[in-house]
# Entry
Amino acid sequence: MSRDHVQSTERPTGAPSSDAEAPFLELLARGASADAYEQPVLLARAEGGAPGRIAALEGAKLLALRVRAELEGRRRREAELSALFETAHDLAGLRDLDAVLQAIVQRARSLLGTDVAYLSLNDPARGDTYMRVTEGSVAARFQQLRLGMGEGLGGLVAQTARPYVTDDYFKDARFQHTTTIDAGVGDEGLVAILGVPLMLGPHVIGVLFAADRRARVFEREQIALLGSFAALAAAAIDTANLLTETRSALAGLERANEIIRDRSGVIERASDVHDRLAELVLRGGGVHDVAAAVSEVLDRTVEFAESDAAPATALEASRAEGHAVLHKDDWIAAVAAGGELLGALVLRGHPGLDPVDQRTLERAAMVTSLVLLARRSAAEAEQRVRGELLDDLLDARDRDPRLLRDRATRLHADLDATHVVLAARLHGTAADAEQEAAARRRLWSAASHLAATRHGLAAVRDGGTVLLLPLTGGDTATDVARRTARHLGRAVHESVTVGASAPVEHLAAHPDAVAAAYAEGRRCLDAMRLLGRDGDGAAAEDFGFLGLLLAGDRDIAGFVDRTIGEVVAYDERRGTELLRTLGAYFDCGMSPARTKDELHVHVNTVAQRLERVGRLLGDDWQSPARTLEIQLALRLHRLASSPP
# Structure
């Protein structure tokens, strides 16, 4: 076989010879530009080369350019794949979303060779789109653009969920131009813009852009590449959102765990309180034992206070609301049963009480009320015994002093101490007999409780209650009466009027003194009601001259009869109103003109009645001494005539 035949079988027809390929291989080896591949052909023509050689060089040039283009494409694809890989790597280790998005925009700009690349995101809360990341931008207004939904090239991309490219932005009428967007694009000097959507599922959440400041045609591969970066950007945003949600969920779980731990502690503490209080109740502990147990559990100072020793406003608010209330730096929890205030648990000096501890204090107040009720039930028999003893002191004059003293000692009462006898009665009338009976029972219960705590006695008498309380310290009979009226009034939630006797001594040796003192207390009580002092407490010493007549064994009826008896008898016989006229006359400052206005009669009628009074009482009835006696007699007559 000839050499020429061998060559023909080894090289395709029209293929360039090896000597024609050599210069182009050298150009490929050193990565010369495309223009450099024309030099071997131009040089051969300049030297007058044979047409066959020039044709061979032309063929070799075309082949080399194809190889060069293939190599360039591979290098470009390798760079793109490397950039996508690096972006995916960034996404896998996502820590900072802004850093990942910035890297995506930078790589897109570098690989596409554009002047600017930027990414915008939708803001559902404001209903528009804003610039999130820019790379290569120099205009501040462009970097701060906010676009309405559907505006600009990005609006077209978002509406269609497809890539769009414009060779000349300002001449493109396919999308909506706005003054704001056009001004920003103009400041940046952009001409050719490519935009691809950022998709999360079927939803467009933003747009990734690549743009040049000159006219340019973006190739299909470049559009696909930018789309790949957009997909990675969307994935990064989705991952960041998931991470945020996960962190939020973890934070929620952590808070839930804290709450569970706190509630576990609360349950444990509540169980401890329950066990302690149950043990106290079972072994017959008192209210102070309950307060001590709660103090230990709460690590705070908790005390039981009588209702008259606790702040009245806070105590009433706690009773009405059923919760502990803050008073200055103390917490007040009312101890009540059946609408009756029995006292309060007071937590001292801790205004910032935890709600759980507050509920613990409230539960302790409930337990305290149960303890008090149990103690009251046990004490009812003792109260009956106290009432029987006081009844014997009031009614039986011939009781053996030694037996009386022994009975009092068993009730922790000392009949040899100085006492005050108090007559207490509710102010006002109830709507019906049942309500009135219930009110009297509450008064009796409160009075019995007070008597037991003050080492005294109490009994039901004359539609009200009578108490025998020791006089201690520097107290006067008036002090005891007023304090008792306040205490009983708060306990029964109604006005209670209390009249007190003068102090009495040696009751066991002189039991009749109790009956006399009670009569004096009753007279004071009636006088207070007549004088409009309901809801208060007073003793005979508070009434001046009238008190001298109220106190002790006085012949009040005889005094009244001697002073105004003639007038009283005249009115009873004739049905006249001399007494009423006389009272109005003194009340009006002894002025006939004012008296006639008060009585709504003619002044002559007043003069005639007063003339009749003068004939009955004597000519000197208007002298200072007589007027004082007559006014006292009028008041005493009213007192005696008023219904009980």
Observations:
- Residues 220-282 form the longest helix (63 residues).
